[in-house]
Structure formats: structure tokens, C-alpha cells
């Protein structure tokens, strides 16, 4: 039977959604890179898929290998934790870590910026951001988290 004749298949939520509910784009500067790929990142895009997922994608200056722009997918809770920890790390100039059932991220403060490390321990991905663009990234992430799962006011 085909789907047109009435058959329904169980498919994960994010697989059925082709378009995000919202996209927040953050322009970076000339000192933003992702490793181990070694690509310059011109822009981060926060794609909101209500009510459960945030996807972070990169727009590269060059990408001859045609690698996927997707960097990371986070649940709403993990995205909220990353937003909070990123702001804390910048204000305190102190590294931190987020570990949950689904995610393991580290935020490292270095002399010229910040390194966000994520992915499997065997082959982590490092997103290096300069001090001149980190507040734009924190603001874009906070806006995406608010759109993803707003917290009711008092």
C-alpha cells in the first residue's frame, strides 16, 4: 500500500518537518572556524522546530567537499541550558560544561575567544568564536530558545 491509499507510517517529528518554525541568523566575523573540518564560518543559523528541537547550522565561506551545514541538534532543555551556560561563561570568563542524557558540550574560554566543543568523544567538533561575535551568538541562541519553548511570565 502506498501513503496515498491511506497507509500511515510512524516517523520521528523532525523527519516529517521540512521547514522550521523560525530561523535566527547570526553573522560572525573573520575569526570564526569549525574544526576538524578547518572551515571559516560566516554565519550561524538557529533553526527552531517547535516544540522540541533546535538545530544549529553553519554557513561556510568555502565548502569544496560539500559537507553538511548541520553542526548540532539540541532538545529544548539542552538548548536552554546551553543558552544559560554560554552567557555565564562570557560574563564570568569561566569555562563550563553541559552534560545531559542526549548531549555533552563544553564551553572553553581562551585568550582570544571561546571554543564550543560537542559531538562524540572520539571525534569532537570544535566551533571557535572570537570575543567580538560571542554576544551576537548568545543573543541569537536566547531568541531561538525563547521561540522554541517560551517560559510563562509571573
What's the structural blueprint in terms of helices and strands?
Layout: H1 13-16, E1 22-27, E2 33-35, E3 39-49, E4 53-60, E5 70-75, H2 76-92, E6 96-99, E7 104-110, E8 113-118, E9 125-130, H3 134-148
The major sheet is characterized as:
9 strands, antiparallel
Which runs of at least 5 residues are low in confidence (pLDDT < 50)? Answer: 1-16
Strand content: 35-45%
Tell me how many strands there are. 9
CATH class: Alpha Beta
Q: Tell me the Rg in angstroms.
A: 17 Å
Number of contiguous helices: 3
Verbal overview:
It is built from three helices and nine strands; from the N terminus they run H-E-E-E-E-E-H-E-E-E-E-H. It has 154 residues and is an alpha+beta fold. It has a single domain, classed as Secreted effector protein pipB2 fold, CATH 3.30.2450. Strand 8 (113-118) and strand 9 form a beta hairpin. The radius of gyration is 17 Å and the shape is globular. Residues 1-16 have low confidence and may be disordered.
Features:
alpha+beta; disordered N terminus; 154 residues; single chain; Secreted effector protein pipB2 fold
Amino acid at each position: 500500500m502506498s501513503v496515498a491509499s491511506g497507509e500511515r507510517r510512524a516517523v520521528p517529528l523532525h523527519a516529517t518537518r521540512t521547514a522550521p518554525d523560525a530561523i535566527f541568523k547570526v553573522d560572525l566575523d573573520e575569526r570564526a572556524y569549525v574544526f576538524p573540518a578547518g572551515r571559516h564560518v560566516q554565519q550561524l543559523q538557529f533553526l527552531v522546530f517547535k516544540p522540541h528541537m533546535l538545530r544549529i547550522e553553519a554557513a561556510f565561506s568555502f565548502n569544496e567537499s560539500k559537507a553538511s551545514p548541520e553542526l548540532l541538534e539540541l532538545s529544548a532543555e539542552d538548548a536552554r541550558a546551553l543558552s544559560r551556560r554560554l552567557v555565564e561563561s562570557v560574563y564570568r570568563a569561566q569555562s563550563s560544561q553541559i552534560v545531559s542524557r542526549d548531549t555533552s558540550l563544553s564551553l572553553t574560554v581562551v585568550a582570544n575567544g571561546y571554543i564550543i566543543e560537542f559531538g562524540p568523544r572520539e571525534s569532537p567538533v570544535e566551533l571557535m568564536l572570537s570575543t567580538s561575535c560571542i554576544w551576537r551568538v548568545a543573543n541569537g541562541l536566547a531568541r531561538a530558545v525563547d521561540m522554541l519553548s517560551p517560559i510563562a511570565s509571573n
